[in-house]
Amino acid sequence: MESYLADHVTRVGAGNGEPLLLIHGLGHCKEAWDPVIGLLGARFDVAAIDLPGFGGAPALEETPDDHSLSAFCEQVMDGLGWDRAHVAGNSLGGLIAIRMASRGRALSATALSPGGMIRGWEKPWARGMLRVAKHVPSRLLPLGVFSDTALGRKALLGLMFGKPGRMTPSYARSAMAAPARATVFEETLDAVDEIDHLPPPTVPVTIAWGSRDMLLFPWQGQRWKATLPDARLVTLRGLGHVPMPDDPGLVTDVITRTTELAQDAPST
Questions:
Q1: Which long-range contacts (CB under 8 A, 24 or more apart) does 67-72 make?
Q2: What is the pLDDT of residues 14-28, one digit of tens each?
Q3: How many domains does the chain have?
Q4: Which of 76, 170, 175, 250 has its CA 20 to 30 A from that of 55?
Q5: Nearest-5° angle of CA 2, CA 93, CA 186?
Q6: 49 by DSSP, 3-state: which?
Q7: AB hydrolase-1 domain: which residues (predicted)?
């Protein structure tokens, strides 16, 4: 764990406030949070992590489903000296954040387009598009036009991002390269399915969905709301599946508001 913490955790704002764990989605890496980590670090002790098998991190020995990945994130918290933390995640990371809240390790959970509510034809669509995202962008990465121009980013990254023209070229290059670097992409994709048993979290949970999410569709948020009636459901107007570079300020505000709900809640 010591080498993992040194190589696969970005820590910002240590000593600035309550702990906040950031968890990326399938195929991405800790750099997914670069647009917001500085904003969040002004208020929280933030750690953005690489999930096992992503971002160059070693893979788990067990099946990489949301249960084992949640348990691993809790081990990371132990290594950081955190008993509980606010947790925010995107896509697969959002599902993990909710799992951690259900398991009692989260002070609050913010889930941005969380997985776990894909049904019917949505499943082959999402899996097919994720496989396209894994293989196509990395092959086009040497053609700088797709990362270095707003039009190129819009053409290639519009599936995942609502406003790809706004992202920086360096962020675009990271997003294009990350899926191909993942060593357990297919294994994780096959292992994570519709949620099964989920004890209701007793901490504030926010489900936030980009209105331009074309991978996991916004109506899946209503399924989460039906499963977790006490959760707050928020629409992110004009944002995509990975909303952090689309509007860093709005994403920061959504996460911060969720943490404030935890502070406002009566102690038990």
A1: 67/99, 69/96, 69/188, 70/96, 70/99, 70/100, 70/103
A2: 888 999 999 999 989
A3: 1
A4: 250
A5: 90
A6: strand
A7: 20-252
